[in-house]
Amino acid sequence: MFPRCLSSIVSWRSVAILAVIASLLQLKQKQLAAAGAAAGEANSGSGLKAGLKGQHSVFRRRNYHLGQKFSDDHQAILAQIAHWSVLDGSGEFRVSVGVLRGSGAEVSQDERLNGRDEDTAPSTHGLTLVTQCSLARLHRLPPLAKHWQGPISIAVFALSGEVQAVVQTFHLLRKCYPDIKENVTFSLIFPLNSPTSPHLTPTADTTPCDKIFSEIQQANYDFKGVQYPNNLLRNVARKATSTPLMMVIDIDMTPSLGLHDSFISYAKEKGLFGENSGEEKTVWVVPAYEIKENVEIPKTKQDLLKMKENGIARPFYQELCLKCQRYTDYAAWEKNKEVKEGHIEPLYEVLWQDPWEPFYIAKTSIPPYDERFRQYGFNRISQVCELHVAGYRFLVLNSAFVVHEGFKSTDGFHSTKDMEQEKNRILFRQFKGELKERYPESSRRCY
Question: By CB distance 3.0 to 4.6 Å, which of 181, 229, 305, 420 could disulfide with 174?
Answer without folding.
Answer: 181
